[in-house]
Amino acid sequence: MLYEAIVEKILQEMKNGKRKPGDKLPSIREAAETFGCSRNTVIRAYGELEQNHRIYAVPQSGYYVAHRSSGAVEGRGAAEKQDVIDFEWAGPDRNAMPYRDFQHCMNEAIERYQEDMFTYSEGQGLTSLRLQLTRHLQDLQVFTVPERIYVVTGSQQALHLLVGLPFPNGKRNIVVEQPVHPGMVESLRGYGGEVHGIRYDEGGMDLERLEVLFRDGDVKFFYTVSRFHNPTGYSHTNEARKRMVELAQRYDVYIIEDDYMGDLDFNPKNDPMFAYDPSGVVIYVKSFSKVMLPGLRLGLVVLPDGLRERFLHAKAVADVHSPLLTQGALEVYLESGMFAAHIDRMREIYRRKAVLLQEAYRKHLPPGTMYTRSNSGFYTTIGLPAMLKAQAAAEHLLQCGVRVDPAQRMYLPQFREENVLRLSVSQVEEGLIEPGIRVIGDGIRELLRQRTEVRFVRRG
Fold first, then answer.
1. Mean pLDDT of successive 10-residue segments in the chain (460 residues)?
2. What is the Cα–Cα distance from 279 to 287, expressed in whole angstroms?
3. Which end of the chain has the lower number of beta carbons within 10 A, N or C?
4. Please, what is the Cα angle at 244 between 240 and 248, to 5 degrees?
């Protein structure tokens, strides 16, 4: 079989859904046996697919289907004919992920910790890694000691464990911003205490309402994403962060500050809430997944003394300890300076994408459509005109060649909104951002036209 035939067959399997984004392709040997050809033919076919961004290679692992399908955008000229533009997937930019560098760090970690791999490790995390993390956090204005840092298997593990733990203030209820990322919604599902929501809008948060909740709500902790909020992309101002910390200290409420993308903040004057808190009410949580490799599944939490023992016990029950090999590799990555160089590249990539997205919003979205004016290269939201529903709009836009994420699952029931879409540009190529938003704008106009015709027919 010629390599062109292999390429065409794999593309067809992607189009009909047999091979989905993230699926692993057969190895070179397996594919050669399946297609009845030489390995060189398969290598050439995979090489062409990779060059066209239909698949991507992961060293020491294999080839995977990229998060774009082969459906064409309808209604565009041949020069603009593109694959489905995916504003839903929110992982790091594939072209900027440090596969090779981290492979070297993994190899170094194997050499460094080869004897330790046959035993259980420290539940709190490798001491040497926590020392590196202490130094790394100083660049984010988080000054702490290794004893207060706990390595977790992704920041979501820390959040899930903290939801279930009793806190030293003896209180029971929780306050979360609205909307909030789906992982937190799921962790709160079935929680025994009351869960209060507070809206997070472009102007910030209603701090007077927050004070009432802190004062009267028997609040154990308040959860907030301080920078590059998911799904809106907003960041709190330094003034708002400082005020929230003051309220927490006054009313004996803990704050869980989720700074999962703080590394990407290109404004050095922005401080985390932790920087305003000498008393220990701010619990700082951070992830490395969004800024490096999603499969890394490593994060950290900085805990006050009153929670350390309880948290360590809960983590031991959950997974004993986070994977030693990836801990060691992250230690090498930080120690070598590779992480700092990688973050500099990522900041510039996402800054450019954020600018392009905001320009495209202003240019192509119809009147009556709202959008978040954020400088995050990851998340923003579009508020559809009131008569349109997000789920139906997402289905319509997918038929037009753009994938977006309805945001209903990101709200508590009493705050639920049906007309909000979440978009992520983190993996969208820069040249596809404006065409994608143009399709969205045209799709919204078409849905509005259809609604108008339906109302006219009913009145007639």
1. 84 86 88 89 87 75 68 37 79 80 90 78 92 95 96 94 97 97 93 96 92 98 95 94 97 97 89 93 92 86 97 94 91 93 91 94 96 87 95 95 94 94 92 96 96 60
2. 23
3. C
4. 170
Q: What is the pLDDT of residue 201?
A: 87
Q: Give 53: exposed, middle or buried? Use CB within 10 Å, 0-12, 13-18, 19+.
A: middle
CA distance 176 to 185: 9
Instruction: Kindly list the structural domains of the chain, giving each domain's residue range(s) and its CATH number in brackets, ordered by start.
Output: 3-66 (1.10.10.10), 99-336 (3.40.640.10), 343-459 (3.90.1150.10)
pLDDT at 65: 86
User: Quick check: 329 and 102 in contact, CB under 8 A?
Assistant: yes
Measured torsion, CA atoms of residues 266, 271, 273, 275, in degrees rounded to the nearest 10 = 140
Strand partners, 198: 177
CA distances to 17, 93, 221, 422, 426 from 88, rounded to whole Å, are: 17, 13, 30, 7, 9
pTM of the model: 0.80
> How is residue 195 annotated by DSSP?
E
CB atoms closer than 10 angstroms to residue 345: 12
101 closest CA partner among 329, 294, 414: 329
Helices within 52-118 (DSSP H only): 99-113
By three-state DSSP, how is residue 177 classified? strand
What was the pLDDT predicted at 375? Answer: 79
Minimal CA–CA distance to 86: which of 29, 28, 10, 20?
A: 20
**122: which residues sit within 8 A by CB, 6+ positions away?**
321
Instruction: Report how far residue 266's alpha carbon sits from residue 28's, in angstroms, rounded to the nearest whole number.
Output: 42
Return the residue matching tokens 């339906």: 454
Side-chain-facing half-sphere of 352: CA atoms under 13 Å: 13
d(CA 241, CA 256) in angstroms, rounded, equals 12
Question: CA angle, corner 57, sides to 55 and 59, nearest 5?
Answer: 170
Q: Are 357 and 154 in contact (CB under 8 A)?
A: no
Give the pLDDT of residue 193. Answer: 96
